[in-house]
């Protein structure tokens, strides 16, 4: 899970150094050693600020870009504050989607296991009976989706009065996806002196209202930079490609064939397009899967497992289905349709470029949709580049156009080698001379004579060829007698016979013929 991994360095730090860095924040030795074993060298910015504050039991607002380590920032203090000797649920973490909840469960089991803390997942879409059986073990930590957690509470299998630690991960999405009533109902049932933490990459008006109602003097993560304020790290490159709607599938095919990403997440606005896009990409020979918002938990887990292991290269998902997805090192996000608003774009693009790694986000847009890139750029304060594929590379449109131009100097050599077509007829000097009224020489291979000029290096004027005299007559071909010139009488006879029928011409010629004496 890349949410809790730090960017890899050139040299792996010693275990003692890593342990000391987290121990300085107040974490116990067991957690610090486990972090060192997992290869985490030092805390991220949000972890360094949140861990000491949350260890004191203070409410908190963790607002930080995706992939900045928020999960461990709130989970480590919770695990340390839980008493493993008590056989009761002391902490509840709620997440908007099944996938994000399962990611939190995996991290909690990794770091809570050595402390003797049991974690149970209560996730919608999975078998309720099996989850109720697990609740009989009296877990100290429960992680789940709001609807399923509330359902278990209503069955009296999860008493909330003893819960003193509550976390709402992706708070803005929990409230916007319809989980607000479930969350608020459970918060009212928990202990009055509980510690409440809200976590999100963005901060909506609904989240601000919830903060004023449910948090008491909270510690708040101050945005350390513009990227933290936006919820997007600067390691992400933002771009868009222009094409017609019917060309989008082919463009995705070209992107995947040329860039060869280890994996790519494809977002759609309309879930009705998922099936069509899935079948077309599979027909093209790609290994591709899809996630719907109502994908069953078991199937969803299998789909994500194949994608993380690299057996599936492309994953199609809606915004709801992909909420909270965390794929380590995901290099590419393709938006089949532009994001509906800035908040949706943040959570789409935030699936890549996590924990200091580079990532690329590409929106596929029709010519009529390019204004969306300008709008999102102004709202988020980021620059979108128009991109094109050239020679298997993804280039800015300006560079791609320049790569196609042929330099003027080697143009003649390109024509000689046959790698470029000769100039068009209208561009040839000979054609231009004809248009301006100049005459061609008698023979194309015969050069025009030049007279010496008085000034060195200046070509002399070339005289135009003389016109033939009107009286000049062409010589007859060799071996042929010249024709006798006709007299006035003959010319008169020809004029009279002009247009006459053949029989009349023959009769007149016979009458005028004079027999030789």
Protein topology:
Blueprint: H1 15-23, H2 29-37, H3 45-55, E1 60-63, H4 70-81, E2 91-94, H5 98-112, E3 119-122, H6 128-135, E4 141-144, H7 146-154, E5 165-168, H8 171-189, E6 195-200, H9 205-214, E7 219-220, H10 226-230, E8 236-242, H11 248-259, E9 264-268, H12 272-283, E10 288-291, H13 297-308, E11 314-318, H14 319-322, E12 332-335, H15 342-349, E13 359-365, H16 370-380, E14 385-390, E15 393-396, H17 397-403, H18 411-417, H19 429-435, H20 488-497, H21 502-512
Parallel strand pairs: 1-6, 1-7, 2-4, 2-5, 3-4, 5-6, 8-13, 8-14, 9-11, 9-12, 10-11, 12-13
Antiparallel strand pairs: 14-15
Helix pairs in contact: 1-2, 3-4, 4-5, 7-8
Rg computed from alpha carbons, rounded to a whole number of angstroms: 42 Å
Q: What is the first-to-last residue Cα distance? A: 128 Å
Tally of contiguous helical segments = 21
Biggest sheet details = 8 strands, mixed
Name the poorly predicted regions: 1-13, 224-229, 403-460
| Secondary-structure arrangement, i.e. CATH architecture of one domain | 3-Layer(aba) Sandwich
The number of E-state strands comes to: 15
Major beta sheet, strand line-up:
10-11-9-12-13-8-14-15
**Structural class designation:** alpha/beta
Task: Please give a structural write-up.
The chain is α/β, with parallel strands linked by helices and 517 residues long. Among the domains are: 176 residues, P-loop containing nucleotide triphosphate hydrolases (Rossmann fold), CATH 3.40.50; 172 residues, Rossmann fold, CATH 3.40.50. The chain is built from 21 helices and 15 strands. The strands form two sheets. Strands 10-11-9-12-13-8-14-15 form an eight-stranded mixed beta sheet, with helices on both faces. Helix 1 packs across helix 2 and helix 4 crosses helix 5. The protein is elongated, with a radius of gyration of 42 Å. The chain starts with 14 loop residues before the first helix and ends in a 5-residue tail after the last helix. The relative contact order is 0.09.
């Amino acid at each position: 899970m890349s949410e809790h991994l730090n960017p890899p360095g050139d040299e792996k730090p010693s275990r003692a150094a890593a342990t000391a860095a987290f121990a300085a924040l107040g974490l116990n030795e067991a957690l610090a050693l486990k972090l060192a074993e997992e290869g985490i060298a030092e805390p991220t910015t949000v972890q360094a600020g949140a861990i000491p504050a949350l260890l004191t039991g203070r409410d908190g607002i963790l607002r930080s870009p995706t992939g900045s380590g928020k999960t461990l920032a709130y989970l480590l203090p919770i695990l340390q504050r839980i008493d493993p000797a008590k056989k009761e649920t002391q902490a509840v973490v709620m997440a908007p989607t099944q996938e994000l909840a399962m990611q939190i469960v995996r991290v909690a089991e990794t770091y809570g296991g050595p402390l003797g803390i049991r974690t149970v997942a209560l996730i919608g879409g999975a078998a309720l009976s099996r989850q109720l059986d697990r609740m009989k073990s009296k877990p100290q930590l429960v992680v789940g989706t709001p609807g399923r957690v509330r359902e278990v509470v209503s069955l009296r299998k999860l008493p909330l009065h003893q819960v003193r630690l509550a976390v709402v991960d992706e708070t803005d999405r929990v409230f916007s996806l319809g989980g607000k009533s479930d969350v608020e109902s459970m918060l009212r049932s928990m202990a009055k002196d509980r510690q409440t933490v809200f976590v999100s990459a963005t901060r909506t008006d609904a989240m601000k209202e919830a903060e004023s109602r449910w948090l008491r003097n909270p510690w708040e993560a101050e945005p350390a930079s513009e990227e933290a304020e936006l919820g997007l790290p600067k390691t992400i490159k933002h771009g868009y490609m222009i094409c017609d709607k019917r060309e989008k599938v082919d463009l995705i095919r070209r992107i995947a064939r040329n860039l060869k990403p280890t994996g790519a997440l494809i977002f759609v606005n309309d879930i009705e397009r998922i099936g069509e896009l899935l079948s077309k990409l599979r027909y093209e020979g790609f290994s591709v899967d899809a996630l719907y918002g109502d994908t069953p938990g078991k199937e969803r887990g299998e789909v994500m497992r194949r994608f993380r292991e690299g057996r599936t290269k492309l994953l199609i998902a809606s915004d709801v289905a992909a909420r909270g997805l965390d794929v380590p090192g995901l290099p590419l996000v393709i938006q089949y349709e532009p994001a509906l608003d800035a908040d949706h774009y943040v959570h789409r693009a935030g699936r890549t470029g996590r924990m200091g790694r580079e990532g690329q986000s590409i929106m596929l847009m029709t010519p009529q949709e390019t204004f969306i890139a300008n709008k999102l750029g102004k709202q988020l304060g980021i620059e979108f580049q128009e991109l094109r594929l050239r020679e298997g590379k993804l280039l800015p449109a300006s560079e791609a156009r320049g790569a196609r131009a042929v330099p003027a100097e080697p143009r003649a050599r390109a024509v000689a080698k046959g790698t470029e077509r000769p100039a068009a007829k209208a561009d040839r000097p000979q054609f231009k001379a004809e248009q301006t009224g100049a005459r061609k020489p008698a023979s194309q291979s015969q050069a025009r004579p030049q007279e010496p000029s008085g000034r060195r290096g200046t070509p002399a004027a070339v005289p135009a060829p003389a016109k033939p005299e009107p009286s000049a007559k062409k010589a007859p071909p060799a071996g042929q007698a010249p024709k006798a010139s006709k007299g006035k009488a003959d010319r008169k006879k020809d004029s009279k016979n002009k247009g006459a029928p053949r029989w009349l011409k023959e009769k007149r010629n016979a009458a005028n013929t004079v027999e030789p004496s």
